[in-house]
UniProtKB/TrEMBL annotation:
PANTHER family: TRANSIENT RECEPTOR POTENTIAL CATION CHANNEL PROTEIN PAINLESS (PTHR47143:SF4)
Protein name as it appears in the record: Ion transport domain-containing protein
Keyword Repressor: no
Record-level GO cellular component terms: cation channel complex
Lineage: Eukaryota, Metazoa, Ecdysozoa, Arthropoda, Hexapoda
Length: 915
């Protein structure tokens, strides 16, 4: 049943087709109803919201004033008679009609689908619902009962409490209903089998004198349906009778159902441990479900917390786990514990099974909110349970619908423990000191989960095949990027697992850095040559042929590289506009593109215009080149130092700029010559006097910050005391205190960065790699634009287009380059063992075997060895503790034996003494 709205009329004054259909049904306008549904047949399946929560057929069965012909028309048009409302105990149309005591509509339903008369909703058939919820005061009550009886409804069906309809009728004193059933000699009504609190229908009828005739004899169970007997035993919690039924030989009946539950589902719901074991031993399918109850038996048992049943089901070799099972147990892990009911035990049993067979369930499955089991574990469960999930390769990079990752809620100490566990080696190996001792770095938990694909389908569908390829290429640096921004996680960037991951990522994309750097050097060189020899060449002498060739070549290369630069920036803006606009370097590139575009398009501009453009372009392009070279890991610390010092310097300078501006205006007022006393040669005075205007005064004050005071040219004559005092105050406050403060701040920042140069380098590398990765793996077409096109035309294919498959593939480590892990020989100077396929590809471009080898840095190898030794020491201590525990246990056992012997000796001694 599709519950999504098939039509959308947002911000429209016209009524929706759904509301029009509802109005036609309520007014019994069958003609227009048929016309509307014939053009929009999906309207019949639409589930109305608000207080209705039903499709149109169920609404027609519940509202007054709707004629049977209208209901019949809906059924003829294709309304689903089998739809069970999840908001109303899984009731179907026949149950709603019985509940509202509408015999006319009930008759239509029975005529259209006579075999639905015994349909169950949570164990109740229509006769149960009529007695429990129908209006007995209406004349139609008996008519409904008669219709159901004549249609062959099972009058002996037990509900969820294994109680029949006649029992409830006796409970409510419905004598006329009882008379209707008992007067029909063909029904063979069971008055004895269904009991509640020790009473059956016979005892109630006799006690209340509800029937004047002769009650039928005791029900003969020999002719009773075996399946009904088994369900009756389970509903009454009679496990002994259930297991002993037919001497336990129920192999042919182990998968029976009552149209709502299978025997195993009902046993799990009731918590009948022995019944579950009996059914499994007799061949019951542990994954069998019914159409109305789609929950797996293990899911039902887990919801109730029956851990013993969960254990039995997990031990079955054919068990299939529901995807949401781990999430459900984690969300309810703190529920109150009862005998035989413990959600935490259920979770522990499930985790122990997953440790043996990790493929049994997907630990990275996300619910409707995008939350995985790890999201709930870091919020609700203890640290040990989170660590267990991480060992099962639960991803720290899974994002929910709010773009929140589990790593944002995890404790740094727990993450460090897990990263240590990601360094895997054979703890029992005796070759730890040898060169061929391997260590494996497991990266599965720090990369986003990759959805499992249907290979068979993808092979035949090109669009699905491309989509499957795209899903394999995920943004692998999400976790590391977050760690680089979170102060509490930054120190973990020096962990060998993270360092090796960043090292291999850089090794994977460094070709792109060098290509980009080479391209920009060509752009910078051609721009510089073009400006020097052509655009800003103001020498009127004739150029030599060589210079003309240089000018022509530089102009050509400059034009080509400028065009490529524009395309590169446009591509970055389209793929990820938010990331692009958040980077200060990109604003430099935008201004540079604008200025170089003006240089390229206006070669014959006036001299002053060309000079300004040329000087600005050279400065900006040089700045950009410095920043680009600083993206290399070995030089990143220097650029970070420049950025940090510059940012902090300007931040503090901006704060104190109020004082500088105030001094500038004070100097303008005090040091400006009065108009009446202007010297004759005003031009010379303006050259000497820098305080003749506010702008000049501010500029001169800023120059004075460098120590260039030129006090001899300052006019102190008009206000000799005040002007000298303010000037001295400027020297003391600004030139001495403020500048020394800023210099000290710069020195402090520089020293901090130098002291932690390694960490600063890792942070810069992580952020740069993440930026490059987001660009290469981004979609050219914005998601909202694609959705708009697909809503307008269903023929438009999936437009999620990654830039270029080869580029995207070459930027990712997994799964085409490394199999989610990497093996290293720490005793071979950190040599990385590459997969065979990668080695073969690299041999094509290298002439010797040593050319393709990759080595981790010495510090990473040292930290790896330190962690290995620490883990070995812990195992050694643990082993010694276990041995000590065994010795203590052995001594306690000997002590107990000696005590027993001593007691025996004392007892014998005392007995001999008294004898």
């Amino acid at each position: 049943m599709n519950k999504k709205e098939p039509f959308c009329r947002a911000n429209s004054i016209c009524p929706t087709p759904q509301s029009i259909l509802l109005n036609f049904v309520r007014t019994n306008d069958i003609r227009n109803l048929k016309r509307l549904v014939s053009t929009n047949p999906t309207l019949l399946n639409y589930v109305y919201k608000t207080d209705l929560n039903k499709p149109i057929l169920l609404i027609a069965c519940t509202e007054t004033g709707i004629k049977p012909d209208t209901v019949e028309a809906l059924i003829d048009l294709g309304a689903d008679l089998n739809y069970a409302s999840p908001y109303d105990e899984d009731w179907e149309a026949i149950h709603f009609a019985a509940s509202y005591t509408n015999s006319h509509i009930l008759k239509v339903l029975l005529n259209k689908s006579p075999f639905k008369v015994n349909s169950l909703a949570k164990g109740n058939n229509a006769l149960h619902i009529l007695v429990k919820h129908g209006n007995h005061d209406l004349d139609e009550f008996l008519k409904c009962a008669e219709l159901l009886v004549n249609s062959g409804i099972d009058v002996n069906q037990g509900d969820e409490k294994n109680v029949s309809a006649i029992f409830w009728a006796a409970k409510k004193d419905y004598a006329d209903f009882i008379k209707l059933l008992l007067d029909d000699n063909l029904l063979n009504v069971d008055l004895d089998s269904h009991k509640l609190r020790g009473k059956n229908a016979r005892s109630l009828i006799e006690e209340k004198s509800l029937y004047t005739g002769t009650l039928p004899p005791e029900f003969n169970t020999n002719n009773y349906d075996y399946g009904r007997i088994l369900f009756a035993y389970l509903k009454s919690n009679n496990e002994t009778a259930f297991i002993n039924f037919k001497n336990g030989e129920i192999i042919q009946m182990s998968n029976l159902d009552d149209s709502y539950n299978t025997l195993l589902q009902l046993s799990c719901e009731k918590g009948l441990n022995e019944a579950v074991q009996h059914l499994l031993n007799k061949g019951a399918d542990p994954n069998l479900r019914t159409e109305k109850n789609s929950k797996y038996p293990i899911e039902i048992a887990s919801e109730q917390g029956f851990y013993e049943i969960v254990q039995q089901l997990l031990d079955h070799p054919q068990i299939t786990l529901p995807k949401k099972l781990i999430i459900y147990l984690l969300k309810n892990i703190d529920n109150e514990k009862f005998p035989h009911k413990d959600h935490e035990r259920c979770y522990e049993i499930l985790l122990s099974k997953l440790n043996v067979n990790n493929n049994l369930a997907d630990v990275n499955f996300a619910d409707e909110y995008g939350n995985t089991a790890l999201h709930y574990s870091v919020r609700y469960a203890e640290a040990e349970k989170t660590q267990e999930l991480l060992k099962l390769n639960a991803s720290l990079a899974s994002k929910n619908i709010y773009n929140t990752m589990p790593i944002e809620s995890i404790e740094p100490e727990l993450l460090e423990k897990h990263l240590n566990d990601c360094i895997e080696f054979n703890t029992k190996s005796k070759t730890i000191e040898k060169e061929d001792f391997p260590v494996t770095f497991n990266y599965r938990s720090i990369i986003p989960p990759i959805p499992k694909k249907d290979v068979c389908v993808a092979d035949y569908d090109p669009e699905l095949k491309y989509k499957a390829f795209s899903e394999e290429l995920v943004k692998e640096t999400e976790v590391v990027f977050y760690m680089s921004h979170a102060p509490e996680f930054r120190h973990l960037l020096k962990h060998p697992v993270i360092v090796s991951f960043l090292f291999m990522k850089w090794h994977r994309i460094r070709w792109l850095f060098f290509v980009n750097l080479l391209f920009y050097i060509m752009f910078f060189t051609s721009l510089l040559l073009y400006i020097i020899y052509s655009f800003a060449n103001f020498n009127e002498e004739e150029n030599t042929p060589f210079l003309n060739f240089v000018v022509y070549l530089s102009h050509l290369i400059f034009a080509i590289t400028f065009f490529i630069l524009v395309l590169r920036e446009l591509f970055q803006i389209i793929v990820s506009p938010k990331k692009y606009l958040m980077s200060f370097e990109n604003y430099i590139e935008i201004v540079l593109i604008f200025i170089t575009g003006c240089i390229l398009c206006s070669p014959n501009a006036d001299t002053d215009y060309r000079k300004q453009l040329s000087s600005t372009a050279i400065l900006l392009s040089a700045f950009e080149l410095v920043l680009m070279v600083g993206q290399h890991p070995k030089l990143s610390t220097n650029v970070v130092m420049l950025k940090t010092v510059s940012f902090n310097f300007f931040k503090f300078l901006l704060w104190y700029s109020l004082l500088i501006i105030a001094f500038a205006f004070s100097f303008f007022i005090l040091f400006t010559n009065p108009t009446s006393e202007q010297p004759k040669n005003s031009t010379d005075t303006e050259d000497e006097d820098m305080f003749t205007g506010p702008g000049k005064s501010l500029f001169k004050t800023i120059i004075m910050l460098t120590g260039e005071f030129d006090a001899g040219s300052i006019n102190f004559q008009h206000f000799p005391i005040l002007s000298k005092f303010i000037f001295a105050l400027f020297i003391f406050m600004i030139a001495i205190i403020l500048l020394n403060l800023l210099n000290g701040l710069a020195v402090s920042d520089t020293q901090i960065i130098k002291n932690d140069a390694e960490l600063v380098g890792h942070i810069a590398r992580a952020q740069h790699i993440h930026y490059v990765e987001s660009m290469l793996l981004g979609n050219i077409f914005p998601e909202k634009f694609v959705n708009f096109l697909q809503n307008c035309c269903c023929c438009i294919p999936n437009c999620e287009l990654i830039v270029a498959r080869p580029l995207a593939k070459r930027s990712c480590l997994f799964p085409h380059y490394l199999p989610y892990e990497m093996t290293v020989y720490p005793n071979k100077q950190g040599e990385v063992v590459m997969p065979k396929t990668v080695r073969n590809r690299r041999f094509l471009f290298s002439s010797c075997a040593s050319c393709h080898k990759i080595y981790l840095d010495k510090e990473t190898v040292r930290r790896t060895n330190s962690i290995i030794q620490e883990k070995r020491d812990k195992l050694k201590v643990k082993k010694e503790c276990n041995q000590l525990d065994k010795r203590i246990e052995f001594l306690l056992k000997i002590q107990q034996e000696n005590k027993e012997k001593l007691d025996l000796i004392i007892e014998n001694f005392l007995s001999d003494k008294y004898v």
